Fold this protein.
Amino acid sequence: MEHLIDIKSISKEEILNIINLAKEFKNGNKKSDVEKKTLALMFYENSTRTRCSFEIAGQKLGMNIINFDANHSSLSKGESLKDTIENLYFLGVNAVVIRHSLSGIINNVMRLVKYPIHFVNGGDGTHAHPSQALLDFYTMVEKIGTVEGKKIAIVGDVSHSRVAKSNISLLSKFGVDIHLCAPTYLQFENEQAFNVQYHSNVKKAIDGANVVMVLRVQNERHEKEGYPESSEYKRLYEIDTKILKEYAADDVILMHPGPANRNIEVSSELLDNRVGKTILEQAQNGVYVRMAILNTLLKGDR
Amino acid sequence: MLLKNARIINPKTNFDEISDIRIENEIIKEIAVNILPETNEEVIDLTGKVVTSGLVDIHCHLREPGFNAKETIKTGIASAINGGYTAICPMANTNPQVDNATTLTYTIIKAKEVSDIGFYPICAVTKGLNNEKMVNVSELLDNGAIAFSDDGKPVENMHLLREALKYINSHNAIIISHSEDSSLANGGVINEGKVATRLGLKGIPNITESLAVARELEVVRSVNGKYHFAHISTKRSIELIRQAKKDGLNVTAETAPHYFSLTEDDIVDYDAKYKVNPPLRTKEDLEAVIEGLKDGTIDVIATDHAPHTVHEKQLPIQNAPMGLAGFETSLGITLTYLVHTGKLSLMDAIKKLTYAPASILNIPNQGSIEVGKEANLTVIDLNEEWIVDASKFKSKCRISPFDGYKLKGKQKMTIIKGKIINIG
């Protein structure tokens, strides 16, 4: 594995290797193979969790971290991403994590960059967020063991969610029963794109679910032309303790890629109770999974 | 000059026979079997080759003035000739736009400097392509305009479209429609469908086109106008045009080679070389386009040659401009995907590349092989297999979704006013 662009491009075996390696890192049984390698974090879109998570993962591995300030870089002077990355390579950077608002920007730039630098997708537009899907999968496996045949309901702004897409991609490889739930205006434009169950009724979607993954519903979307106010969403789709208790499996685990909008897509009360704690564990697991990703990609480099 | 033993295809008269053609002083003098060469007459043996009236493209973009890095009139014409075209009709969306007699004259003079190719500019319908003010129609026609179109942008003011249609038709000219509803197209990158959803790209729904076709057909119906639809790409648009023709409306339509050879499924790796407007559609749409070509709903195959710089086409697909280089692959794609597959007869395919476009725009001296007419001809090897190499295009746009495609059938000579230009 040289790059991590999307889940589609990696095999089931590669996924399991990352999960197992992450577990070893978490248990303290594994030492870094990538000390002194240099990692650049190129975040062109706001991010707290993913950026900090990669940074801490890199630090734990003994890597040098460059926190590239996208807003004050030469890109703001019009330099292309390709030129920036080729320069970073010649400065000694071994891998870049890119977060960007344009879907496919990493596929685009990889076609143009002529030097062997490793690319990690830190979330591109509405396309993919593979490290998030891997840490979600890690958390599910940790909590419920085997996932095959288990039901997951993904509820929220599906249409704009790279997290949903990467999770669908990954969980499909492992035989998970995937249900997506959103109002029509937040559902995928084309439902044939993925072989999953689609719902507009949240009760049906989460009925018997072993995992309920809530997606952030972006307020800014609701302010745009053609959408109702966010209170319309909350009325029908907010996940709270009551609805989980009534419809989901007894031992359901609640997940959220963050950042959450309290009392819109998920109730504040639920976030702060025992069930909501999984979301913090998710974030913690993210560090180990990202250590595993970086170690896997870079360990073969001289 | 004597062209010997060519298979002459002339759709106007449904003529398909092996014969000789004598050309003298730019004019076709004689068409007959076994013409004996005169002393010192140049004889070109075309045994095994097809000769048609020169290909006519009624939809292309040459980018000059204003966007000379993408293409110039000179490189655009070189590309057209390399594609077998003897007449081209460039669209008006240059900078300044071809909405005034000065710019129109400039382009015609520029073209004349480099070639005798039939050069028939299409002028804007509205000043600045801004949907507000109609151009000076008669003045532009007197200075060489062949038709009117805001192509690149739709005319979305229906009052203006209706008035322009009445007035332009009253001068025996037509409007060519870029059918698009901009509120639906807004920000879209590729066809709305499973590929766009998977890739996380904003889709352009197919009603973007058919909605515009439907309302424009109502405008045409209301004034009994003559109207031509450019680059038709969807099943529903074709159904609407088919019905309109049945109802007796005086409408015609064109498609472009990429709409009967590529679909959204061909888009790989966010590569903007596939980005075009209208977008590559679904297999169902592609099949409807072929059906429309077969039953005559679609009259014309036009290139929609829309060059951009390689740098622009390497931008992230969301930021890259729409458009493909079309001249140099148009005939090869048509022969490979329609004729050699048995979907369209050679006669019909040639008709849609020559006689039909020349007739719709009333282009003089093009569209059919006749004694007494200018010798504008294309020589074709129907069976030559070749591989598209975009790096060798005469166009400045050396990037193409067909790069590396193996095609069967190739233009070999373009003859303009009796002068032969050999093509490799």
